[in-house]
Write a structure and sequence with these properties.
The protein has seven helices and seven strands; from the N terminus they run αβαβααβββαααββ. The protein is of the alpha/beta class. The chain has two domains: 125 residues, Double Stranded RNA Binding Domain (2-Layer Sandwich); 88 residues, no CATH class. Helix 2 crosses helix 5.
């Protein structure tokens, strides 16, 4: 029984969704480009499976970070993020306006307990298309430098496992109940006795309870695309399952 409990515990852990790493996105510079760059960086991070926040640093800490990076003091920036940031890392971009439609983007990815990754790229005759290309190029360099891997969420888990656990658990409870009943039969008038039925029944009931409980737990955490359906009319009826498995 102990081995079964270990397997069930493993299934619960394996089925639990992984928590996305949080990234604070900070962009400073001319308002003309700041919104667009912020949008592109947030979209890139979200597409890679990160949880994006724009409130990773309080105003005072943010001003200190700007000062650190204005003089390229990466040690200062890293220390500040590690001690003051609410997010796992901070993606910082400073936009330097060179001409009316020409900018240089200085970008830094400050991941806690890692060296700061930094790069700069110019966007000439900057339009939405060229800005997107520039931002993508910047993030390709930074993500490689910090060892970031794509964590885009996969398809939601199916409900096959919870259903199997619940059905199997109910079956174990039923068989265990029968075994417990047989274990109570004793006396001179009983033709056949089952001396091992009681411990077997108790074990099956215990396993059944754990399986049903685990199945219900996974069910409540899973997607809602599937579920039982039933229809009853005056002359017919059916019970089944509909949805995505």
């Amino acid at each position: 029984m102990r081995s079964i409990l270990v397997v069930l515990a493993f299934l619960v852990v394996a089925a639990a969704p992984a928590h996305a790493r949080t990234v604070g996105v900070v962009v400073v510079g001319p308002a003309t480009f700041r919104t667009s760059v912020t949008t592109e960086l947030e979209a890139w991070a979200t597409g890679r499976g990160h949880a994006v926040t724009t409130e990773s640093l309080d105003p005072k800490a943010l001003n200190l970070l700007i000062d650190c990076l204005a003089i390229e003091d990466h040690a200062c920036a890293r220390k500040l993020v590690e001690s003051r940031s609410k997010a796992d890392s901070v993606l910082f971009a400073r936009i330097e306006l060179i001409g009316t439609q020409e900018v240089t983007i200085h970008a830094y990815w400050i991941v806690k307990n890692q060296q700061v990754a930094a790069t700069s790229r110019m966007c000439e005759s900057c339009t939405d298309t060229t800005l997107r290309s520039t931002t993508t190029g910047i993030m390709t360099i930074l993500s490689t430098a910090v060892g970031d891997r794509d964590q885009a969420p996969s398809a939601p888990p199916s409900r096959v496992l919870p259903v199997v656990l619940i059905v199997g658990g109910v079956s174990a409870l039923a068989v265990g109940g029968v075994e417990l009943y047989l274990g109570t039969k004793d006396g001179p008038d009983v033709k056949t006795i089952y001396p091992n039925a009681t411990p077997i029944g108790a074990a099956l009931v215990g396993v059944g309870i754990v399986m049903v409980g685990t199945g219900i737990y996974l069910w409540t955490r899973g997607p809602k695309q599937s579920g039982p359906v039933a229809n009853v009319t005056t002359d017919s009826g059916y019970f089944g399952w509909a949805g995505q498995f």
